């Protein structure tokens, strides 16, 4: 039976302090979302008259229903394309050990180093020339290309740690390389696929600058851009902004909690690779 020591107490106190530090932004978020406009000046003080009217006002004034729908379309469509393309690309990159395969992998990894600002103007002109400016599909096209290098990196690390015996058995049964991948290998990629889905979904859902650039002046707005309507030139309606943020984080938070075990397994598999 282990004794309760001073060291155990110190560790518990340290963990408690860390938990409070991480919970502090959440407290500010909820406190401001429930505050009246005249109470928003000092978000550290708990609101004396909590109100849920901010959520209704934010929903109506910023048209959050349509904004959430646009964000969902962009996020789901982009993630599906990213998973399909990256998984297919990572399979030969992880199984073929030639110099060409290695060179192609590192060429893709260069995409992780290139800043978005370097290609911002050429990409904007390309989207404009193909007639997708102001459409949510321009964002799907952008994210599908921008997130592939990072996703290929995760998939390749996981695949390199995956035994080849399963797919080789499928080949002996007459399966092609493509059918062996989709029927045998891809189902075993479930942990890393969960990680890929949630990491890309969080990034795409919360991105502000790209939708502002490609959807500016159109009737289609994503959630972060819609909330920006509460920011004026000289002031901002912080209770409505934070109420909208609370509404906006609920879908992605539910997605994370549903896939939490899968995400941890994916990270563990990637670290082994």
Automatic annotation (TrEMBL):
Domain ABC transmembrane type-1: 68-259
Subcellular location(s) of the protein: Cell membrane
Keyword Disulfide bond: no
Superkingdom of origin organism: Bacteria
TM helices/strands, residue ranges: 12-34, 67-91, 103-124, 136-159, 180-205, 238-259
Membrane topology: Multi-pass membrane protein
The keyword Cell membrane appears for this protein: yes
Pfam families in the cross-refs: BPD_transp_1
UniProt keyword annotations, A-Z: Cell membrane, Membrane, Transmembrane, Transmembrane helix, Transport
Annotated InterPro entries: MetI-like, MetI-like_sf
Family: Belongs to the binding-protein-dependent transport system permease family.
Protein name as annotated: Carbohydrate ABC transporter permease
Originating organism: Microbacterium kribbense
């Amino acid at each position: 039976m282990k004794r309760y020591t001073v060291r155990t107490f110190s560790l518990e106190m340290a963990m408690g302090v860390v938990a409070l530090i991480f919970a502090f932004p959440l407290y500010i978020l909820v406190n401001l979302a429930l505050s009246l406009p005249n109470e928003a000046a000092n978000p550290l003080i708990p609101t004396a008259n909590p109100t849920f009217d901010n959520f209704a006002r934010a929903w109506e004034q910023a048209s959050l229903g349509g904004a959430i729908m646009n964000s969902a379309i962009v996020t789901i469509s982009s993630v599906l394309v990213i998973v399909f393309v990256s998984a297919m690309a990572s399979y030969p990159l992880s199984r073929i050990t030639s110099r060409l395969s290695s060179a192609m992998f590192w060429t893709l990894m260069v995409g992780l180093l290139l800043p978005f600002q370097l290609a911002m103007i050429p990409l904007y002109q390309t989207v404009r020339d193909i007639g997708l400016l102001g459409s949510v599909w321009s964002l799907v096209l952008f994210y599908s290309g921008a997130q592939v290098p990072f996703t290929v990196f995760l998939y390749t690390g996981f695949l390199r740690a995956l035994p080849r015996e399963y797919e080789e058995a499928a080949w002996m049964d007459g399966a092609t390389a493509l059918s062996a991948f989709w029927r045998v290998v891809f189902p075993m990629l479930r942990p890393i696929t969960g990680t890929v889905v949630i990491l890309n979904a969080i990034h795409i859902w919360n991105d502000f600058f790209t939708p502002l650039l490609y959807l500016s002046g159109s009737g289609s707005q994503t959630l972060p851009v819609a909330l920006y309507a509460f920011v004026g030139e000289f002031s901002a309606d912080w209770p409505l902004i934070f109420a909208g943020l609370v509404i906006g984080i609920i879908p992605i938070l539910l997605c994370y909690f549903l896939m939490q075990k899968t995400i941890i397994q994916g990270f563990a598999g990637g670290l082994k690779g």
